[in-house]
Amino acid sequence: MSEKRKIVLVGTGFVGMSMAYSFLSTGGIDELVLLDVAKEKAVGEAMDLQHGLPYARGKMEIYAGDYADCRDASIVVITAGAAQKPEETRLDLTAKNAKIMKSVVESIMASGFDGILIIASNPVDGMTYLAQKVSGLPKERVIGSGTILDTARLRYMMSEYLDVSSSNMHAYIMGEHGDSSFVPWTHAYVGSKSLLELLDEKGKPLSDLHDIYTNVQQAAYEIINRKKATFYGIGLSLNRLVHAVLDDENAILTVSAYQEGEYQQKGLYIGVPAVVNREGVREVIRLKLNEVDQAKFDSSCRTLKEINRDIIDPLL
């Protein structure tokens, strides 16, 4: 990966620009390049960000560019893609965005890019699978945003429920970034204490956990119903992932990572806890799932494998 902390963002919609804007507050980026099929929009977004640089944290070069700028980038983040229309099915959206993703990745690789690809376009697990196949990059260097935002929502809601800082909530949403995701509650901790033990001591019903998960699962629908789209949360989540890579953190994040038997499944990308550093995904963290959770994970994998087989593989 290039020593220069250069990020290229492909797609200047709400999600991409939420991430881009957040870099002004967190710093740590030397160069930020914006790409979009609507070139004038990318120019306008770059200008808008440039005008905030006097108040930003650290020096940063920001400009609108083209795919040639990917050549020496450390990371390319892809948020480009069509939004799902009310009359469209999830499969319709997958077919549409798969064609967009294929074209985008081909253009990136034509530049000579040899860094880390981060995918946030939906459906993210399938798009990450496609991006790796098209790019030919090592599987560990193609990472999907996976359930990183779902996990943040979970920890926030656990924090509100228990009145303990979210930084001390250690729990994960696993599986597809979608309706078949799940929480392995036996691996949820508050500080170093088992969440299940804590609830038992406090006399709180386990049914509350179902309510928390339901609220997490429905969060995007609730936000979209009120403001048409979600973007701040995923923008900050992508910022977190980018810095985990650039800063060589060895941070554990629930990203969409390639499966090679860690959870009895192979040949697909799906949301799991993984160690992320400058090389991408260093390793997938193996949690011992009980029978119920393993069945949920297997079901989620079947859903994704069907999409890959029926829609994505024919494009490759």
Automatic annotation (TrEMBL):
GO terms for molecular function: L-lactate dehydrogenase (NAD+) activity. Residues 147-307 form the Lactate/malate dehydrogenase C-terminal domain. The active site is at residue 177. Its main location: cytoplasm. Pathway: Fermentation; pyruvate fermentation to lactate; (S)-lactate from pyruvate: step 1/1. CDD domains: HicDH_like. Substrate binds at residues 84, 90, 122-125, 150-153, 230. Catalyzes the conversion of lactate to pyruvate. This is L-lactate dehydrogenase.
